[in-house]
Design a protein that fits this description.
Radius of gyration: 21 Å
Largest sheet: 3 strands, mixed
Helix content: over 70%
Number of domains: 1
Oligomer: single chain
Number of strands: 3
């Protein structure tokens, strides 16, 4: 079994647990400034759509490719110099994976909403939820706050944890760097407004592609560690109805796994959007509340444990197959 890979993943989660999100000098802050400069230099919404779309592709390449290539050569140099399982190689890879994930940060934000919500402090809960969602929060009631927070935990669990882990396991350090930079650009450029509709097309589409498989693995994970039958049913019946091709399966499966009603109408930038309902439609389905947020966090943690166990199991099978061939 590739013990070094398992140790790397566990060390990354340990670093995240102990350190949380870097408060100062986070590399993504510097990348964000680089992305802002590129957008100002390349984005010209006055140009025809195809030209501005091409400029968006070029800006994406300038933003992502050089940094990904740099980390590819850094990893290659370390492995070739020290060896694949050397402790410095493990620490380097674990540190990069830690920077690319947002496990503890996600849970902390969620609990900052759940705690005041349980104490009936809607003002504090609204303020906390406004920090992690894009919808209007000033008039949300208890159910609205809990729905927004629970959806955010489920969706960001896929983006901030499982997609990053997937690309690390598949392509190593350059894979997770490529994913995190691409995901960051989607968050900055992937809006369907006048400014970014064409320029941000590439960033949005690349993020959709990179998240396609991890999102479905996340949905499956939520189903396996929650109410499996209900989660699978909700995923199949509701997952394709959501505006996002990746968030839909994740949140539908998560809602079913938790047996909670999510989705429904929500206000964004003073405009009401009528979103599909997610979760069981029978009378047994629970309305979202503070406890739903806590359960969503526990669901994410159980899914992480499932991934670690599955990783160990898969590596053991690979070792057995390799031994049989030899």
């Amino acid at each position: 079994m590739n013990v070094a890979l398992v140790v790397t993943v566990l060390l990354a989660f340990l670093l995240d647990y102990l350190l949380g999100e870097a408060k100062r000098f986070h590399p993504l802050v510097g990348f964000g400034n680089w992305a802002i400069w590129l957008e100002k230099a390349f984005n010209d919404k006055n140009k025809i759509s195809q030209v501005n779309k091409s400029l968006g592709i070029l800006a994406w390449l300038f933003a992502v490719v050089p940094i990904t290539v740099l980390f590819f050569f850094m990893q290659e140099w370390l492995v070739n110099t020290l060896g694949d399982g050397h402790w410095l190689v493990i620490i380097f890879a674990a540190f990069i994976l830690y920077l690319a994930m947002g496990w503890k940060s996600l849970l902390e934000h969620a609990m900052n909403i759940a705690t005041p919500l349980k104490n009936n402090d809607l003002i504090k809960a609204r303020l906390a939820v406004s920090m992690i969602v894009s919808r209007d929060t000033q008039n949300l009631n208890e159910n609205g706050i809990a729905t927004a927070a629970t959806e955010s935990v489920l969706e960001n669990g896929a983006d901030a944890i499982f997609s990053a882990l997937f690309w690390f396991l598949l392509l190593g350090v350059p894979g997770v760097v490529m994913y995190r930079l691409s995901n960051t650009l989607d968050a900055m450029w992937g809006y369907k407004n006048e400014r970014f509709l064409h320029f941000g097309w590439c960033a949005a589409r690349v993020d959709d592609v990179l998240n396609f498989i991890p999102a479905r693995l996340t949905a499956l994970s939520y189903a396996l560690v929650g109410s499996t039958r209900v989660a699978i049913h909700c995923w199949r019946q509701q997952g394709l109805n959501w505006k996002s091709p990746n968030a839909g399966p994740v949140m539908a499966a998560g809602a079913g796994a938790l047996n909670v009603s999510l989705g429904g109408a929500a206000q964004y930038h003073s405009q009401m959007q009528h979103r599909p309902n997610l979760g069981p439609h029978d009378v047994k389905a629970l309305q979202a509340n503070g406890e739903s947020i806590v359960k969503a966090c526990k669901l994410v943690n159980k899914a992480i444990l499932l991934w670690v166990v599955a990783l160990v199991f898969i590596l053991m099978i690979i070792n057995v197959l390799e031994a049989m061939v030899l």
